[in-house]
Amino acid sequence: MTDGNLSLLLCVPDDGDRWRRLFSEAAPDLHILSWPALPEPGRAFYVATWAPPEGFFHRLPEPKAVFSLGAGVDRLLRRDDLPASVPVIRLTDAGMARQMAEYALSGVLRFQRNLDLYEAQQAAGLWRPLPVRAADETRVTVLGLGRIGGVVATTLSALGYKVSGWSRGGTDIPGVVCRSGLASLDALLAQTDILINVLPSTDETRGLLNRDRLSRLPAEAGLVNAARGDQLDCDALVDLLDAGHLRGAVLDVFAEEPLPDDSALWAHPKVRVTPHVAAVTLPGPSVRQVVRNLRRFEANQTVEGLVDRRRGY
Ligand code: OXD
After folding, report:
1. Burial (CB count within 10 angstroms: exposed 0-12, middle 13-18, buried 19+), residue 275
2. CA 196 to ligand 1 centroid distance, Å
3. Cα distance between residue 29 and residue 27, in whole Å
4. Taking the CB of the first residue and of the last residue of the chain, which one, N or C, has fewer CB atoms within 10 A?
């Protein structure tokens, strides 16, 4: 508990009243404010936010820390109004890892169980059973093995898929062949039937899935992108789909969101589009994680999800 002099300023695009109620219930000792209200001058405060308006931080005194109500902090870190001295703390799971595993599984099943091909056959009125590929003959690679990617990889591995994982720093996950470093990526892509991207967007991962790397996937490979649109070259993807090299793509994220009306992806027969919903922020678990972290921060204890700005996540 704090001494009652601490404020938390909330700035969220939707459901402001609900967030405010949940924070007030979880931390009755905090003075919860909703933007555009401002903390009293001289009063210490934190910010909890998702997609704050442009110039938001310029209009505030410096907060003790900013809690991102999402796992990805790429947009927050790219802003020019957030002073570099302010600690940023992101959500590390808060119910998102499981959602991401479900989304990834839906993409894996689409390609492994030929649901994409049966959709096309149904449209053509065609009754034609196709050979089944077993889970243990299906090579799935998960890019990103943090709190979310780790759950995606272990969930798929527990279902019998042949799972490899790739991360920047390297990690060990039982049942998953783990690789790290750019030098290992090309070889891994060449042995991937279904590629799942859940990497954070950083200087190192932006543009990672370029034409060259996508071409290294074997013929008939499928792609699931649930991370960020700026990591994938969509023109190259469409070329490789049209050339029959890649089998299909399930895309949840795009360089420009909402996906523009004139994007070729909307109507592409080998692409499925969802509106950035693979893993949404769940208010209940997120509030609990923010409040736990805020208390730890106040007590000078380690907080989960403290962002290293140089790494970008
Ligand atoms: C997130 C997202 O970063 O929803 O949490 O994209």
Report:
1. exposed
2. 16
3. 5
4. N
